[in-house]
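Hi R.,

Here's the chain you asked about this morning:
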Amino acid sequence: MTTALSTSSANAASLTIPTTTVNGTDVFSGPSFTVNNDFLGTDTISLNVSGTVNLTNTVPTGSGYITNAAGILTQPTASFGSQPTGAFVVRAPGINWGALLLGNSTLGFRQLFTANTANGLGSSTPSTNLSLTNVTLASIFGTGLTNGTVLEFRISDSDNFNNSGAFTVSSPTTLPTTTAVPEPFTIIGTLIGGAAAVRMRKKLKSDTI
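And the predicted structure, written out as tokens:
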């Protein structure tokens, strides 16, 4: 289990999620992390998710059920009465088969990415790299999060015996700009060089008198 860090801006704090691999078999349990601060519902979360999972890996190639993190099919499937690329199938209210979930037994498990056009709905080539940017915690969990809360990733499915693939979850980061500090010998060398230049100018001046 890892620990989530927090960053803040002028407006809200942001929950930073550690880089995590969520396997297609992580249906009944999955990788988890601990929230290390109190967060309001108006605080935010930003993350990137790449990859696909296959819920029916034993089905012949071309007939598997392969989705991105929003549960949108990245290829046609013979499952659920045959579905085209860019479609999705609802498993429960607000949750699609194959979607990436985050939560716990108290908060419930919530789908992070909506099945919309931005996430590949109706596309013949749905993206397998999805992003959330400054989405409020309340819009996902209906509330904020308290220090010590354990959150767990899962895959939306009813079994995992024939699942494969994985999602890689990471938080976008911006590194602060730093100014290089000269090494001590560089400073000393500059001072020595400057002193030598002054002596040389004095010598040249005296030679011309």
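The helical segments are 137-141, 184-207.

Let me know if you need anything else.
M.
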